[in-house]
């Protein structure tokens, strides 16, 4: 492989990369993205954490005439980025609630005069009449919308102000836009395009693989002890993050870890802002501190040497899991993602979902996101394969760097079960979710079964050898393996994929995981 030596003088982007940032070459898709944006195109950039998203707008900001407005949801992140840019001699500033009126006015004046190349702004400020008026008087180079997944109402990072950002394009239709995120499944991508008015934008999708992260999921026995044993063995002195579902559990776990001789700090939205900030600072600057946190912690935390991320409770979706574990190993060195998972978690996540105020279609999406996560937990296949499959990527061979690859799990021959499960999907017209299909398999004469005359199907009652809980696990594993997809544009029913065809024909053996959780807690599961 010989690269043609590029002549920086003929490529202003490369010239900026070298002279301002001191790097010799673009990485991955950076060069394409940057060229597209410099030409005035809109872009949606999906790149994993640490992939180098910032340069995708910082370089165009310095090549194009005018001011680049960067929308960023986190004040701490803005400050860090601006400080780093100024050290490189870039004319950058931020506008947020941490500035007083006089400081803000100075920044505004510099924008209008064109004495600034990049200005970072919080979304809530951006949509104020004052700021919109300021933009009208400023020569604009580019709009960069960072953490674009904040527009998704299903994620826990949802920021309502992001929904208003399409106003930028309405008022300044000729200014290009670049939206960036490190986490977006198909659903979130569609939402970003739709809500931010980026339907015409070119999508730049980088591989989501984080090869340096080892994924592990263990069935819960005594979660704290299991985690402590894991930390003692693999990370006796490293910094890491432990995610818990509730604030109370965050505090208990942090206190308990300290008793065990591990320096741990709590972080959740119920703590006073000054405590949160102090703890975050200690974590970032300190050595080997464990941050015990709710999901309130993490977005924009730039600590390269986080060596582990543990989930004592599973998150709500694979997207959230990917994002949270993605905070480990940003420096590229080996890191661990460890999660404990038990039936009680599944029950409470399901209950939360069913009791939420959300409408049916919303709940359907949430349910399919949760099922995907459970499928990941229960898989006997390579976890990285399942994770990447969820983001639409295919990993050819097992990764060799996850628990199922390193210590293969006990499986059973699920070829016939898979065949039955898939044919139930097929014979009912590829429109139904697991609940109804399992009724068909078990031969339950429900009202829906009667209405659709599904009791006349060959598959009706052909699956009595397994329990409802086991069939649920079978369906999740089939989704996780990519034999079924969930049709989110329709009613959230299952559809066969191309890979599912040989399975339904019995030409493809399927191994399913023996799930200790399901086996032990069958009673709980059936009660759902
Ligand atoms: P992201 O925002 O995607 O998580 P960053 O923009 O913070 O990633 O970049 C991650 C790291 O990679 C940073 O330290 C950055 O300076 C570095 N980096 C990005 N692009 C390049 C490049 N082309 N050459 C060398 N280092 C790069
Ligand atoms: Zn693997």
Structure description:
By secondary structure, the protein is α/β, with parallel strands linked by helices. It is 43% helix and 14% strand. The protein has 24 helices and 17 strands. Helix 2 packs parallel to helix 3, helix 14 (343-355) packs antiparallel against helix 15 and helix 15 (360-378) runs antiparallel to helix 16 (383-390). The longest helix is centred in the last third of the chain and has 19 residues, at 360-378. The protein is globular. The relative contact order is 0.08. Residues 382-384, 398-399, 401-402, 404-405 line the site of zinc ion. Zinc ion binds next to helix 16 and helix 17.
User: Quick one: overall form?
Assistant: globular
Sheet with most strands: 7 strands, parallel
* Number of helical elements: 24
Structural class determined from secondary elements = alpha/beta
The count of strands amounts to 17
């Amino acid at each position: 492989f010989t690269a043609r030596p590029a002549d920086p003088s003929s490529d202003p982007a490369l010239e900026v990369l070298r002279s301002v940032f001191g790097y010799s070459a673009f990485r991955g898709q950076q060069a394409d993205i940057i060229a597209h944006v410099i030409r005035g195109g809109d872009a949606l950039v999906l790149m994993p954490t640490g992939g180098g998203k910032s340069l995708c707008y910082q370089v165009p900001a310095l090549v194009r005439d005018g001011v680049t407005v960067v929308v960023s949801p986190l004040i701490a992140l803005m400050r860090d980025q601006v400080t780093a840019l100024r050290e490189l001699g870039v004319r950058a500033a931020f506008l947020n609630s941490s500035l007083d009126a006089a400081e803000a006015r100075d920044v505004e004046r510099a924008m209008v005069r064109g004495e600034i190349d990049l200005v970072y702004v919080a979304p809530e400020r951006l949509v104020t009449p004052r700021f919109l008026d300021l933009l009208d008087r400023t020569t604009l180079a580019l709009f960069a919308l960072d953490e674009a997944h904040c527009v998704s109402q299903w994620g826990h990072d949802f920021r309502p102000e992001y929904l208003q950002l399409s106003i930028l394009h309405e008022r300044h239709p000729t200014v290009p836009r670049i939206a960036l995120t490190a986490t977006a499944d198909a659903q979130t991508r569609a939402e970003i395009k739709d809500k931010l008015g980026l339907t015409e934008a070119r999508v730049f999708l980088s591989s989501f693989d984080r090869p340096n992260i080892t994924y592990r999921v263990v069935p819960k026995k005594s979660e704290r002890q299991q985690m402590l044993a894991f930390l003692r063995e693999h990370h006796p002195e490293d910094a890491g993050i432990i995610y818990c579902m509730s604030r109370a559990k965050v505090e208990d776990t942090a206190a308990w870890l300290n008793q065990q001789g591990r320096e741990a700090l709590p972080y959740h939205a119920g703590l006073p802002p000054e405590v949160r900030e102090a703890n975050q600072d200690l974590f970032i600057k300190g050595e080997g501190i464990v941050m015990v946190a709710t999901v309130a912690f993490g977005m924009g935390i730039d600590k390269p040497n986080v060596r582990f991320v543990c989930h004592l409770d599973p998150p709500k979706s694979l997207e959230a899991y990917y994002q949270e574990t993605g905070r480990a190993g940003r420096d590229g060195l080996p890191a661990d993602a460890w999660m404990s998972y038990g039936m009680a978690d599944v029950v409470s996540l399901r209950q939360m979902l069913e009791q939420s105020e959300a409408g049916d279609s919303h709940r359907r999406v949430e349910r399919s996101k949760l099922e995907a996560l459970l499928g990941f937990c229960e898989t006997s296949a390579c976890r990285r394969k399942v994770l990447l499959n969820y983001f639409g990527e295919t990993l050819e061979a097992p990764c060799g760097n996850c628990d199922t690859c390193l210590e293969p799990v006990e499986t059973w021959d699920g070829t016939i079960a898979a065949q039955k499960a898939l044919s139930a999907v097929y014979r009912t017209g590829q429109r139904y979710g697991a609940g109804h299909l399992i009724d068909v398999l078990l031969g339950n004469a429900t009202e829906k079964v009667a209405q659709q005359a599904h009791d006349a199907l060959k598959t009706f009652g052909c699956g009595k050898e397994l329990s409802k809980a086991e069939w649920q696990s079978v369906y999740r594993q089939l989704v996780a393996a990519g034999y079924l997809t969930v049709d989110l544009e329709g009613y959230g029913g299952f559809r066969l994929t191309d890979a599912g065809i040989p399975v339904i024909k019995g030409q493809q053996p399927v191994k399913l995981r023996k799930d200790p959780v399901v086996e032990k807690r069958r009673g709980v599961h059936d009660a759902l």
